[in-house]
Structures are given as structure tokens and as C-alpha cells.
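Progress note, project year one: complex with calcium ion.
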Amino acid sequence: MTPHRVIVDCDPGQDDFINLMLMAGAPEVFDVVAVTAVAGNVGLALTANNARLACDWAGWATVPVYAGCAAPLMRGLATAEHVHGTTGVEGLPPAEPATPLEETHAVTALIHCLRGETAPITIIATGPLTNIATALIMAPDITDRIAQIVLMGGARAAGGNITPSAEFNMAVDPHAAARVADSSIPLVVFGLDVTHQLCMTPERRARIRAINQPVATVVADMLDASARRLPAGASHDGPPLHDPCTALYLIAPELFELSSCALAVETDSPLTYGHTSVDLHGVTERSPNARWATAIDAPAAFLHIEDRLARLT
Ligand code: BDR
Ligand code: CA
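Model obtained:
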């Protein structure tokens, strides 16, 4: 197959980091043009640092890493150290990244990369959508340069994980998410409805550890750290792998059930900002603008995760 040329916009974050490892284990699927970091799970200095560490672990010596927006478009930054630890990648041994940080701002880099491509390419987005929305605001001509945005964010049936009605990435920057939803770019959206179906149970974590290779071992360490931070009485049997649904979709789309929908993001309500309105049944007059994931074959997805991690050393 011809690999997907992709830009990864992310806020690592343990599950963002694991997503990048799955991509590294699938070089025939992904041709990574750049990694752009945004503030989210932790502040921008840490997400950029963690993106560089991820490139080290991935063995991506030539993939440039850029730091982007340090705060959402209109709200103050909310972070998630309670989930990911103070570094954002709890479980990963501290190190000085070998991968350099490019001087160019990530938004400038996104615009330049997209304009320089011979054909539209895919963006994988696993953090708040601030960088992407800012690029679209500054350079609307790039809209046509983006083949699709495969993103983790939102919730419909599952309810929220940061407020009762909003998922974290959408709640951190609802205005950016709304700008992306209104962009007319094809969206493939993996919200909590589906990511909560892919939990890293103790047995799955043990199987990853049993691969007994450095990358798989740090992934197991991060998942164990994440499991220790699950709230008492959590309904999941292990941490959900949110962001890796994006790479898994491009690796094996048949794992997922997706439905066309009209997606909109609440920006104004103090109570429900970041809520995703997902019209699957045509009850609004809005035109479909996204495909919304409703289900994953989790056992089969885990086999892919195991297989891709086992290819890395
Ligand atoms: C999302 O929020 C972050 O904490 C994770 O990295 C994921 O992108 C899940 O709500
Ligand atoms: Ca993330």
C-alpha cells in the first residue's frame, strides 16, 4: 500500500505517546511529515518535550517537531496531570530528548507543510484543536490541502470525562473544535463512545509487557501508571486507549463501525462548553460533516496493538 502522508498534532500525554509508537510500528501505513505539539494534557513546554521524546523512541530521526499554541483560542488552559502525571508521560523514564525542537511555530509549519504538498494529506489530531484551528484562521486556503482530519475528541452516548457533558480535548478548546467542525474538511471522529470500549485490562497490559522489548516495556509502564490513577470505582477495567484509535483506524479501518453525522461543538454555555452535538439521525437541518465512531472490535484491535508494538525495539 502507499503510506498515508500525515501530520500528527498532539499533546503527549501517555495515550498520544502510545499512538505515536503504534504509528512507528506501522511504517508501511504512515509517512510522517511532521509532529506538532499543542498545550493540553500538560503545558506546551512539556508536550513539545514529550513529542520529541516520542520521536526518539519511535526512531524517527528525520521527523521535525514543532511547538505550537500555548493556550486555547479564548479560554484559559486546563490540563490533565491528574490523568497523565506531572510530566504528562508518567511511566516514561526522564531524559533529554535527542530530537531537536524546530524554531518555527507549529502553526506556521502546518501552513507551510500543507501548502508544499503535491496532494492533500491527512492530519491526525489527538489533542485540543488549537493549532489546527489557528492555521485555518490564518490560512483558509489550506482547507483544500487537508484530505481528512482523523481526530480523538467528543462524546455522545458516553457522556463527558472532564465535565458531565464534554470530553477533555473538546472542552479545553471548544472554539477551536467548533472552527474545525465548521471547516468542511472531512472528519473522522473517535470520541469516548468508542475509546471507552478499548480498555487496557491487567491481562492486556501483561501481554504488552511480555513482548519484553524496550518500547513495549515503556508502554506497559505508562499504562500501569495510568491504571493507578483511575478513580476509585471507575467503570473501566483498565485505562482506555483514547488517542490510539486514530492510528488504528488508518492501520485497520475494518475494526470500527462509523456513522455519518452532523457534528457541532458547544462554545457558549458555561455548563456544557465543549459538548459535541452528534446528529446521527438527521434531526437537525445540518449537513453531515463527519463520520462518528460508534464501535470497535476491541479484541481484534488489541491484536494489532500487540503486533505493532512487537515490531519496535
Ligand atoms: C483525551 O484527553 C487526553 O487526556 C487524552 O490524551 C485524550 O486525547 C481523552 O479525553
Ligand atoms: Ca491527547
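The CA atoms of residues 212 and 252 lie 25 Å apart.
The pocket of beta-D-ribofuranose (ligand 1) is lined by residues 13, 15-16, 41, 80, 83, 126-127, 152, 161, 167-169, 242-243 (CB under 6 Å).
No further modelling is planned for this target in the current period.
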